[in-house]
Specification:
The structure holds 2 protein chains of 2 kinds. By secondary structure, chain A is of the alpha+beta class. Helices cover about 55% and strands about 20% of the residues of chain A. Chain B folds into 4 domains: about 100 residues, Serine Threonine Protein Phosphatase 5, Tetratricopeptide repeat, CATH 1.25.40; about 70 residues, Alpha Horseshoe (Serine Threonine Protein Phosphatase 5, Tetratricopeptide repeat); about 70 residues; about 60 residues, no CATH class. Classes of the chains: A alpha+beta, B mainly alpha.
């Protein structure tokens, strides 16, 4: 019986083992000084055996004598599987003499090296293919230092970086990434934008005699936009910060549902106006909930321990920038066409109706169908 | 009821690494590795490494053959997978992947290779990827018992019990007793602990292979432990380990039971010789801490190094162990909670639930485990160990 034959594996599987041992890693330490590099490369003695074969007497153990005898082959292997370069031309690498580094997980073959690059090293290109064809899970753990800047990278594998910047840019890069994530989030999660849009569409109008009338000049429109955007920003900044810093936590199903509901309210308010003068209050009240929504994105990303506050601010600024882009893209047009009756009779009510229906679908999904 | 742990290959794009838990572990690891300096051995006879079976250069020739020959590739990959499981040596998972790679690149890919690859992925905690490979294999071979049982295991780890049960049912045609074990182990987690325990107790021992017997004992031990019957649990675990001393899962579960009973000395005795495995080492550290053992600093350093290396590789196979390490050895509840929450995103076994609830409780942030408590209530998970954390405080 087929099942029986495979039972051994089946059961081992189900009782999945507690695993241990670290996976296969090489350690690469590189220090950059102008055009010169220095540092060391390390491979576990076990990995060296697999790569080039050093256990000459095949007794199942590798001695220092055996490893030392294989030093030329090891040097050739390293040369073949590690190359460093600047602007597509290789740096000339010189390996020093072999030593042994006793790490907690076993002994490593340790080779010091120096290299001279063809140009000043601003971006280093590293090709690392150690253990290729033997152990696809092998990784090179790189410690790259330049002056007081120390960075770590993981080499090998599909998503290894091709070029590494050695300039002092990493804190800024993190901030930039959080800023971009903020911008990206507000544009990709269009629920926040639709909420804001619903509140902003009537900003170029004024309610008079039970009807929407175009504003006379830019001043009241501008004022209304600024009020709404400021209220929304203030509100979601507060809750985003509270949630990101683990002060308050709301279940995401609740916040996501209420965010959808907020869009319905804001959109319906344009068709059956209840709040016309102080839409900023709606913006503030629901903005608090939207802040929790932003926070869930941030929770997935995590905040870097060294720069929590800074990254939080960057993320929030990214959101503001995304918002501002919407305002700048839409509101001048809305202002220009405010006197066209179609804006008041069609765009505003039917656009709002469309937004409300979409939000209703989201609401049902999030409140009742979500897992 | 513990580690489904192996290594996680899942590479979620993380914008910035370095979380709180990581920082703590990294700091410890720096202490741990600070002493290492390269040297030139004075004696040619000094032994630098012992090579485990299957990890010598001589095996490379076999691997070359495996590229062309299926009858070499599949047994070799299976050998590496079982080596990884029996010894806890993660490198073997990589070797298995290396052997399987050419067979997965063919079109259509080899179904047996897909199932083995799924096992490797599961061991790395890439559960979604593992399910994906299994579904591909099952499309080609809908009756593959190995694929169904692996699928049931992965879904169980993910807390998707209903789907897991459907996979168990596909085993009935092949081996009804194994299907029973598979199904009852799920029912035990979803509100039917008592009846599942009875059902597995009544499974006739003679109808089972040795491996299935060991599995049955292990399941009985876990169920008894969930029921709070420590004596019975102890009995079943011992029976299991007599049949299958290599069953690391049960050994760790038994160690947890001993620790729970305050039997630190017995724990160390049980785990002697398993020091190279992180989950075992973790339990040794907890026992050593209880005993004020002078070995503790060394054990801590070893664990911290292992966690730090995983962290540096962007992997988190042992996140559950890391959380427990931070909570029970380092006494850092907040960092433990952070790790336990990350772990909960990946796997949802009762042990994952327990560490999350314990860490949240210790960090005075019971709200942080709200989703997990909801999960426990939803599935009506019964376990005396969870009870103090699930009941509302008086």
């Amino acid at each position: 019986m087929k099942v029986r034959q495979r039972l051994a594996l089946i059961l081992v599987l189900t009782a999945t083992a507690a695993q241990a041992h670290v996976a296969s890693n090489g350690f690469l330490d590189v220090e950059v000084r102008g055009r010169d590099l220095s540092g060391s490369i390390e491979l576990a003695v076990r990995d060296v055996e697999l790569a080039i074969g050093v256990d000459a007497n095949r007794d199942g153990q590798v001695t220092w004598g055996e490893l030392r005898a294989a030093e030329p082959q090891l040097a050739a292997y390293v040369a073949q599987h590690l190359s460093v370069g600047v602007a597509d031309s290789a740096c000339a690498v010189r390996l020093g003499s072999l030593q042994v580094n006793p790490r907690v997980d076993g002994n490593y073959a340790w080779l010091p090296f120096t290299a001279r690059c063809p140009a000043l090293v601003r971006e280093l290109q590293i090709q690392y293919t150690m253990m290729a064809g033997i152990d696809p899970s092998h990784r090179g753990l790189l410690r790259l230092s330049a002056g007081s800047l120390v960075q770590t990278f993981v080499l090998g594998g599909a998503d290894a970086p091709a070029t590494l910047s050695v300039e002092r840019s990493s804190p800024w890069r993190a901030i930039e990434q959080y800023f971009r994530a903020g911008t990206w989030h507000i544009w990709s999660g269009i629920d926040h934008l639709l909420f804001l849009l619903s509140l902003l569409l009537p900003a170029v109008l004024v309610r008079a005699h039970g009807r929407w009338e175009p504003v006379e000049n830019a001043r009241p429109a501008l004022l209304s936009i600024v009020k709404v955007v400021t209220a929304f920003t203030l509100a979601h900044s507060i809750t985003l910060s509270l949630a990101a810093l683990n002060v308050v936590h709301l279940p995401s199903r609740l916040t996501e549902s209420v965010i959808a509901a907020s869009i319905i309210v804001a959109a319906l308010n344009n068709i059956f106006p209840a709040v016309t003068e102080s839409r900023a209050r709606i913006a503030f009240a629901f903005g608090l909930l939207h802040g929790f929504g932003f926070a869930s994105v941030l929770a997935d990303m995590g905040l870097p321990s060294g720069a929590r506050l800074l990254s939080l601010v960057a993320f929030n600024c990214g959101i503001e920038a995304g918002q501002l882009a919407l305002v700048l893209a839409v509101m001048p047009i809305a202002y220009a066409v405010r006197r066209v009756s179609a804006y008041r009779r069609a765009v505003l009510p039917w656009g709002s109706a469309a937004i409300a229906s979409l939000a209703l679908v989201w609401f049902i999904q999030r409140a009742f169908l979500a897992q | 009821m513990m580690s489904q742990s192996v290594l996680q290959g899942c590479r979620r794009p993380r914008i910035v690494r370095g979380r709180r838990a990581a920082a703590v572990v990294l700091a410890l690891a720096l202490v741990a590795t600070a002493g290492a300096t390269p040297y030139v051995p004075g004696n040619d006879a000094e032994v630098l490494a012992h090579l485990p079976a299957g990890a010598t250069h001589a095996s490379i020739q076999l691997r070359h053959q495996a590229v062309q020959r299926r009858d070499v590739a599949l047994p070799l990959a299976q050998f590496y997978v079982s080596q990884a499981r029996a010894t806890g040596d993660l490198r073997f998972l990589g070797y298995a992947e290396g052997v399987l790679a050419p067979w997965l690149q063919r079109s259509p890919p080899d179904p047996a290779a897909l199932v083995l690859q799924a096992t490797v992925l599961q061991s790395r905690h890439s559960f979604d990827a593992a399910l994906n490979e299994l579904d591909r294999a099952l499309r080609a071979r809908p009756d593959d018992a190995q694929a169904w049982v692996t699928r049931a295991t992965v879904l169980r780890v993910l807390g998707r019990y209903d789907e897991a049960e459907l996979s168990c049912e596909r085993l009935i045609a092949g081996d009804a007793a194994v299907a029973q074990l598979c199904t009852q182990s799920l029912r035990a987690l979803s509100g039917h602990l008592h009846s599942a325990y009875q059902a597995v107790r009544q499974l006739p021992q003679q109808s089972l292979s040795v491996a299935a017997r060991a599995w049955r004992y292990s399941q009985l031990g876990e169920m008894a432990q969930s029921l709070g019957d420590e004596r019975a649990a102890s009995h079943w675990f011992v029976e299991c380990l007599q049949l299958a001393p290599d069953d690391l899962y049960t050994r760790a579960a038994y160690a947890d039971l001993l620790l729970q009973q305050g039997r630190a000395v017995d724990t160390l005795e049980l785990l002697k010789g398993f020091e190279s495995m992180e989950p075992m080492l973790l339990r040794m550290a907890i026992a050593q801490r209880q005993l004020n053992d002078p070995q503790l600093p060394e054990t801590r350093a070893l664990l911290a190094n292992a966690f730090a290396v995983e962290e540096q590789r962007n992997e988190a196979v042992h996140r559950r162990e890391q959380a427990r390490f931070l909570l029970d050895v380092e006494a850092q509840p907040s960092a433990a909670l952070a790790a336990a929450r990350q772990n909960w995103q990946v796997q949802r076994e009762p042990a994952d639930l327990l560490i999350l609830l314990r860490a949240a409780h210790a960090a005075h942030q019971n709200g942080a485990a709200a989703a997990a408590a909801q999960f426990a209530n939803l599935h009506a998970i019964e376990d005396v160990r969870l009870r103090p954390y699930l009941e509302p405080a008086p």
